[in-house]
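Following up on my earlier thread - several people asked me to post the actual chain instead of describing it. Fair enough. Here it is, all 252 residues.
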Amino acid sequence: MRAPRRILRGGSVKKTGSIPAARGRKLGKDTMERHFEKDLQELKDKLLWMGTLAERAVHRAVHAVLDSEPKLAEAVLEEEDVINELQIEIDDRVVQLLALHQLMAVDLRLVLAVSRINNDLERIGDQAVNIAQSAQRILRHPRVKPYVDLPRMSELAEGMVRDALTAVVQRDVEMAQKILRTDDEVDRLRDQMFRELLTYMMGDSAVVFPAFELILVVKNLERIGDHATNIAEDVIYIVAGQDVRHPTVDRR
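Reply from S.P.:
Thanks for posting it. Predicted structure:
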């Protein structure tokens, strides 16, 4: 629709009701900012849902072993595709955000970190699948030994993933640093269980196969802790702009 016109003295015509150019640019910028905030929130929601699924997969996979429950292992395998599809969708959303918006430094750090966290969550899902597959093989054999350290290691690894997601939501650097410290305890339990299981294997050849599968479970739990540590490092990067992945590297 044309803007209304007003006849001035002397016969000249003046358009009225048009939006000044500066105001139009401001409205356009405000609209883009609202779109960015909406797109960013949807991206974070997708990431948190993916994290919830990955954490649940780890819990189910380990308890398939601890509780001798094959249905839990089957549930993990059935849900693998959902996590993979979410990874692809989140990657696509990250690309769209980078392509459509001129991001400030803090927002750019967040979007780049989301891309890395997305990859770590997908890998956590993969580790859960590995544990579920080991569980199916372990359950074909008698139990090698009482599970004493495995529940503790699983509890620590699951807690690290859960705390990492909380740290992302709350931008909590202190919680992220706590996760970095917990990783040392997970590594200690890994070494202890490796020694115990190898001792069982050397003492009784009948337990070699299930004991080896338990070693794989332990190794995958340790890797889950590593991925949670990666996410914690990304939180520190998002909030403080500090890259703590390689503290000995001189970035001057």
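Residues 37-240 form a domain with the Methane Monooxygenase Hydroxylase; Chain G, domain 1 fold (CATH 1.20.58.220). That should answer part of your original question.
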